[in-house]
């Protein structure tokens, strides 16, 4: 289902998600129940939509001040996947949503993320479908546009993707690199994984501790090598503090874990081909 389906962005993205074959069954906007958007019924609450249509996932196009309430409603309704596209969500709101999902059979992706896309199946998100193609390469990244760049380079090289997950660039996200890598390791459709990282935080270092135990090859791209310490780089979470979160440190950790390191998006296809033995 799509929360915020009646808004300008929600409506447009719903059309594009349907065009990708996504099995959307409903939308939710309080006060707009009874309407239809692109043929989908609009409900007042997530609980009503889930009860009547059995939806198991939601994607949020809800303004930042209301995103916390919308996400908590989806979690409490028992959805298995909640994707928060919303930008500028307050960090304490993101922390509350992440805490609410703990101990439940619910995975939260985002906030401030492009979503999830399995080419040939469907997407809950905003990524441009034309850059993707079905295949065997899993992609997980923090930066949306950089991840698109990598996907486009792979597609142009004839290397399709199994699934792309954008975890989001904020300091607090519902699901990190490590958790997505675990899913790719268990996924029968994925043979190699591309990790797209950037400066700031410790997500890449945490990922490295799991990569060292993975049976599937990992290609890693970390950007921001030329960014001075203390300079914010695009995302709220992409900032170097007191020497921590540097590109060099992340690259070193990933390389020591066995990941093949790409220094630019255009190197990724070559390294993926090598990993696949092509």
Q: Can you tell me about this structure?
A:
The protein starts with a strand and ends with a helix. Strands 3-4-2-1-5-6-7 form a seven-stranded mixed beta sheet, with helices on both faces. The protein has a seven-stranded mixed beta sheet with strand order 9-8-11-10-12-13-16, with helices on both faces. A two-stranded antiparallel sheet has the order 14-15. Helix 3 packs parallel to helix 4, helix 6 (177-186) packs parallel to helix 7 (203-211) and helix 7 (203-211) packs parallel to helix 8. By secondary structure, it is of the alpha/beta class. It has helices spanning 8-19, 46-53, 64-76, 91-101, 144-156, 177-186, 203-211, 247-256, 268-276; strands spanning 2-3, 27-28, 36-37, 40-43, 57-60, 81-84, 107-109, 115-118, 122-125, 134-141, 161-166, 192-198, 218-223, 232-233, 235-239, 260-262. It is globular, with a radius of gyration of 18 Å. The longest helix is centred in the first third of the chain and has 13 residues, at 64-76. The chain folds into two domains: 2-109, Rossmann fold; 115-276, Rossmann fold, CATH 3.40.50.261. It has nine helices and 16 strands. The model has no long low-confidence stretch (mean pLDDT 93).
């Amino acid at each position: 289902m799509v929360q915020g389906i009646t808004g300008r962005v929600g409506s447009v993205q719903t059309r594009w998600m349907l065009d990708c074959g996504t099995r959307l069954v409903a939308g939710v906007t309080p006060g707009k129940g009874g309407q239809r958007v692109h043929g989908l019924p609009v409900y007042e609450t997530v609980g009503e939509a889930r009860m009547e249509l059995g939806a198991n996932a939601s994607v949020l196009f809800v303004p930042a001040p209301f995103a916390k309430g919308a996400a908590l409603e989806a979690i409490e309704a028992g959805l298995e996947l909640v994707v928060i596209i919303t930008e500028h969500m307050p960090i304490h709101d993101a922390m509350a949503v992440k805490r609410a999902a703990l101990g439940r059979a619910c995975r939260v992706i985002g906030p401030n993320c492009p979503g999830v896309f399995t080419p040939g199946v469907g997407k809950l998100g905003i990524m441009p479908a034309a850059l993707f193609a079905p295949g065997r390469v899993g992609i997980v990244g923090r930066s949306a546009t950089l991840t698109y760049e990598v996907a486009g380079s792979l597609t142009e090289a004839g290397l399709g993707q199994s699934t792309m997950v954008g975890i989001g660039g904020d300091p607090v996200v519902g699901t990190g690199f490590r958790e997505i890598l675990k899913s790719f390791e268990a996924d029968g459709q994925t043979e190699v994984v591309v990790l797209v990282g950037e400066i700031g935080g410790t997500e890449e270092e945490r990922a490295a501790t799991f990569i060292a135990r993975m049976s599937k090859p990992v290609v890693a791209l970390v950007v921001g090598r030329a960014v001075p310490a203390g300079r914010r780089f695009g995302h709220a979470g992409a900032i170097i503090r007191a020497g921590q979160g540097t590109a060099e440190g992340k690259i070193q950790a990933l390389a020591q874990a066995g990941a093949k390191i790409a220094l630019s998006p255009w190197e990724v296809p070559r390294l993926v081909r090598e990993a696949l033995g092509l």
